[in-house]
Amino acid sequence: MQNDLSTTVETRQRLEAQLSENELVKKEFAQLTSDNTVYKLIGPVLVRQDQAEAKSNVDKRLDFIRGDIKRVEALLKDIDEKSEKKKTEIVEIQAALQQQSAAVAA
């Protein structure tokens, strides 16, 4: 469970970084005029891209990332609930063992 939690937290951090990066790109796009040229990096080459298409792609990417973040947060909540349940079970088992040990000692 700890490994799952660690992996999921790392995934969420990566998604948050991607979200921040794409929000910065969106802010930059908001400052463009119709005279500005937008390029997209495809491999080692910069290819001219339509501004409207680029803005649309960034908006779609932001929606996708936000959806992924919601999914990961739900997963984190589920892992946390399972972890708490296991902790409770362990405490109950430990208490039962202590009672048995005390009964045997008496």
TrEMBL record:
InterPro entries: PFD_beta-like, Prefoldin
GO cellular component: cytoplasm; prefoldin complex
Keywords (A to Z) from UniProt: Chaperone
Name of one Pfam family that matches: Prefoldin_2
CDD domains: Prefoldin_6
GO biological process: chaperone-mediated protein complex assembly; protein folding
MF terms in GO: protein-folding chaperone binding; unfolded protein binding
Family, as annotated: Belongs to the prefoldin subunit beta family.
Protein name: Prefoldin subunit 6
Native source species: Grifola frondosa
